[in-house]
Specification:
It is a single chain. The protein is mostly helical. The protein has one domain. Helices cover 82% and strands 0% of the residues. It contains four helices and no strands. Helix 1 runs antiparallel to helix 2, helix 2 packs across helix 3 and helix 3 runs antiparallel to helix 4. The longest helix has 33 residues.
Length: 147
Amino acid sequence: MAGAGLIGGILVLLATNLVADQVRAGAKGLASEVTVLVATAAGQVVVLALLWLALSYALRPVAVRWTALIPGALLFAAGFQGFSLAVTVYFAPRAARASTLYGSLGVALTLLVSLFLFARLAVAAAELDAALWERRHPGGRPDRRAA
């Protein structure tokens, strides 16, 4: 079930990116392009937030309501959009240059650094949810059994 959900989520993300690229390609003029860029980025943030919320909900302790997971989902979605921009602007060109300078070691290093930053983003989203839950429920611990 979890594997099917992961594959379904990836397919939803790919479809969202495909639609966003098609809409961006059809935009004419600077104002239209900026509007389309902001709208598609906002749409992608919403889709990512919903997917992260669904994943967090499946892994949450029983005592934690789904509404307590929204801040982490929003942090992950916005951070992923920033991460996507960083990959486009910094990591991809750096990996291309690293392959000519250092060979496969340079590409591996660039890939590992970008994966490390992605992992830190995922952990930060979960930490935000946990910190906010602890602030609202001082001294209480959620039941660890899954729903």
